[in-house]
Amino acid sequence: MTGFLAWVAHSGVVQGVIIGLTFAFLTTVLVLNAVARSETTTVNGWSAIRRAGQPGNGLLVRAALQKALPVVNVFEEAAYWTAITDAAGARLNGTRAYRLHFAANELPPNDAFWSLTATDTGGYLVSGSAGRSSVDSHSGLVTNADGSVDILLQPDQPSSAAQNWLATPPGRFKLMLRAYLPGARIIDGDYQVPPVVEVRS
Predict the structure, then answer these.
(1) What sign results for the dihedral spanned by CA atoms 62, 65, 66, 72?
(2) What would the DSSP string read from start to end of 137-170?
(3) At 19, is the pLDDT very low, low, confident or very high (cuts 50, 70, 90)?
(4) Which segments within the chain are labelled E, that is strand?
(5) What is the pTM of this model?
(6) Which of 17, 47, 135, 153 shows its CA 20 to 30 Å from the CA of 25?
């Protein structure tokens, strides 16, 4: 038995199995990422996967979407959008300031609540970032004279409308917008999240 194991160890079988499994794993990841991209719709820099969690999805689609959005509700229960770039296509960065402008009556329609969160690129909240890492429909956002709402995305607290401020983490970050029990315009695909615009001083 010992001789057989020694032969296997020196024959290249073990190395071949390891290399084969590595290539199989990498190929699986590439295929799942490609399928998830094909299921993703991006408008104004915000990406959404509308078919996530649906029981009619095939095995490959279910696996790909589960990798992209683990433990996610169906879109009709909770709509999710993510953004990693601004309106110009540049990566979101905590060294810059941004504005998310919702026209009057254009906050995400819902029958429960909505929430906007800033995280690191892996989707984790960054401890130690000043201010709150999310704002939502219960944050008491201040409206403009025309009924529109501006959410300020920047590392430092603004001099005015602090309740409309979302503190951004250092370095590259991403935004996640959720609408729970989304309204008909979201489910029908008519609603569009506005772009994230960099504010230049």
Answers:
(1) negative
(2) TTS-PPBPTTS-EEEEEESS--SS-GGGEEEPPS
(3) low
(4) 41-43, 46-48, 78-83, 97-102, 110-120, 134-136, 149-154, 165-167, 173-182, 196-199
(5) 0.75
(6) 47
